[in-house]
């Protein structure tokens, strides 16, 4: 597990930890850095990897030897079942608060976020306030994220380098998966292989990301990870009137969809559109029993509001759609079965509005590639 935190002044990049509260039998040392963005200078951003850790175990830890603050986390299980929370386009609004409250009430093992975290949009202190907002949850469970358009923060000439804050603050395990960029990576947890893709970096067949994805998919052992889940930000399938015709959706789909299809990826989660939509198994615009299920979950609580207008008539591949804030839960029960539920919180109460049982493509004889 990588522990990340920020101090306003110089402090040791050390995490002390153990399996009993207040008893820190182990310690690990990492690195720290800071960044400048126009007139803003960040605090010291610390990253420390602790472990190896036992699966499905509670650990207590403190950062920079700060005796006033103790945290606890629970590691994911080594084997199925496992429960994911999935939420996109989180932001920092009242809806964000209600979404986080509902997530806190679910006994999940890991959170997956397909882009658009803080909605800082060049205002760097908003990254700090977002960190404080999610700390109660992100300190307790692994939060695995990928980037969205609101993480780019590129200003021509004045600040030409994109993703400065995102890459400094949200460091993901990209090197461990053979990737050269924090913007795309993969990892295994329990019996699930999860691929985080970058919608806002190069994805054409000559790009590093495309070549990395080819290699990553080719190395998957469905005996160890019978499920494959991918996350993008800009959805490849979308019947909402918002975000139609964008290259991050259309061109990325054109280049990469066949790779995911041939690898028999089970589910593709996306954000970007501020609403919920679930598609049937689909490939190349048509229902296909061996294609992934596409789910748009960009309804975490952003400040821009909901995307309430859909195209009419509804496409035959779109199964359920609703413009409400909420989050999703994916419970992978075993090698063959999983349950997906979408929890609507548009009434300030978490209500299960959509649910579907899924079977893994690796267990479907008709989809053996």
Helix count, DSSP H or I runs of 4 or more residues: 5
End-to-end Cα distance: 34 Å
State the CATH topology of the largest domain: Purple Acid Phosphatase, chain A, domain 2
* Quaternary: single chain
Family: Belongs to the metallophosphoesterase superfamily. Purple acid phosphatase family.
Pfam families: Metallophos, Metallophos_C, Pur_ac_phosph_N
EC number: 3.1.3.2
Keywords: Glycoprotein, Hydrolase, Iron, Signal, Zinc
Record the SSE blueprint:
Elements: E1 2-7, E2 14-18, E3 26-29, E4 31-33, E5 36-37, E6 40-41, E7 44-49, E8 58-63, E9 71-74, E10 82-86, H1 94-105, E11 110-114, H2 125-138, E12 143-146, H3 164-169, E13 185-189, E14 192-196, H4 208-218, E15 227-231, H5 247-262, E16 267-270, E17 276-283, E18 286-287, E19 293-297, E20 318-322, E21 326-332, E22 337-344, E23 351-359
Structure characterization notes:
The protein has 369 residues and is of the alpha+beta class. 16% of the residues lie in helices and 31% in strands. It contains five helices and 23 strands. Helix 4 (208-218) runs parallel beside helix 5 (247-262). The longest helix has 16 residues, at 247-262. It is globular and about 55 Å long. The model has no long low-confidence stretch (mean pLDDT 96). Residues 291-351 form the Purple acid phosphatase C-terminal domain. Its cofactor is Zn(2+); Fe cation. InterPro entries: Calcineurin-like_PHP, Metallo-depent_PP-like, MPP_PAP, PAPs-like, PAPs_C, PAPs_N, Purple_acid_Pase-like_N.
